[in-house]
Amino acid sequence: MSTPPLASGPEGPDALRPLLDTVLDALAEGTAARGGPLPAGGPGQVAQRLRTALGDPLPHHGSPDALHTLVRALAEGAADPADPLCAAHLHCPPLAVATAADLAASALNPSLDSWDQAPAASELEALVAQALAHLVYGTPDTPDTPGASGARGTQDIRADALVTTGGTESNQLALLLAREKHHGVQLVCGAGAHHSLHRAAWLLGLPEPVVVPAPAGILDPAALDSALTDLRGPLLVAATAGTTDAGLIDPLPDIADLCATHGARLHIDAAYGGGLLFSDRHRTRLDGLAHADTVTLDLHKLGWQPVAAGLLAVRDPADLTPLAHRADYLNADDDTEAGHPDLLGRSLRTTRRPDILKIAVTLKTLGRHGIGHLVDQVCAHAHELADLIAAHPGLELYDHPAISTVLFRPRGATDDTVAAVRRTLLDQGRAVLGRATLDGRRWLKATLLNPHTRPGDLATLLKLVEGHTPR
């Protein structure tokens, strides 16, 4: 048996070319076989088709057809975020250029735990992460940064950012940094805050979080003021810029002012809404963001990156000191003193792939204006969908969207009916809608992240809901 070729090195590109043709053909065939946003048949049939394609997952002898067979099976059984009728989650269709860059990252396979494994990738990560931190916090030549003046004055241009696997890891890191700076810190968050914050508090052994009422889905400043007045000890307030359920944005300037008044640390989870920073039209929605001590960003949402593409922006890089760690084989003292970068303090993970490459390629290819245009497009699509729902006598709109999430339900339907309509569309492979519970009622959720969506696609989505609602 011959030794399989490698993906990198002088012969790597020639070894990859025919394999890429195989992958692309299999993707096309699987997509055509699926014929919609989701495979039909529900979990049981999808699982059986996959089992049939896989066969023995650890055979004694391999098969040269495995790449085509399994890629085709995965494509046929995928929920395809590039289909306009796949609109349930913050699950974006990745840009082709970002996906191509991700291939290069996989082929070169740098590991960002020591400089000698990632000489160029480590420098690329440092430069791009800092640029994105400055997008949040501003620089002397960007006075229009959202929230760059007010409660906490001018921003510190030393701001930095760490690359993470997404919002969950970023939120966990934010709580860890707060705990290390303020021992015994207690989390205070709104009722609509992401579940990862509560999980992080549990994981880090912090006191039970204080949950502040969030009428209409956003944190109530008066209730927060009352809580901060009554509570004792160091406090970390977590606000949200783009809730998972409805894409709502907490009143960030008011919250920042309250944190300054009460001496509380502020974290803003902008995993969803952070993408508005790229849009000249919408970035003022994030006024107050720059007053946060830490900010979660997630570019595999409103950034059109393949998973994973998260960041944690930090206003004061000194807050990152607790992450410092020494392992002689990775960051020996004499190597660091000789000028080799110390990378272990950039993450709690050791082995890390260069997720920054796809981000950097996207930023350089599209520029801030190009990404902002994509943001503007999906926000406009959400408003178009909301207008269609508001004009439809058989549908009820929750509210006009704050970002690109639209909640609606068949008028007069019970919560059980709403859930059943969604499952029916899923099992038939016709449409992928999410669900959310607000104001004590269940809603269908459309999260629009596909800039190629057309008005006709939106109308089709509503016709499918209407046609599958029992009357």
Automatic annotation (TrEMBL):
Tell me a GO cellular component: cytoplasm
The protein in question is named Aspartate aminotransferase family protein
Residue stretches in coiled coil: none
Which residues carry the post-translational modification N6-(pyridoxal phosphate)lysine, per the record? 301
Q: Cross-referenced SUPFAM superfamilies, in alphabetical order? A: PLP-dependent transferases
Annotated keywords: Aminotransferase, Decarboxylase, Lyase, Pyridoxal phosphate, Transferase
| Family designation | Belongs to the group II decarboxylase family.
Query: Which GO biological process categories is it annotated with?
Result: carboxylic acid metabolic process
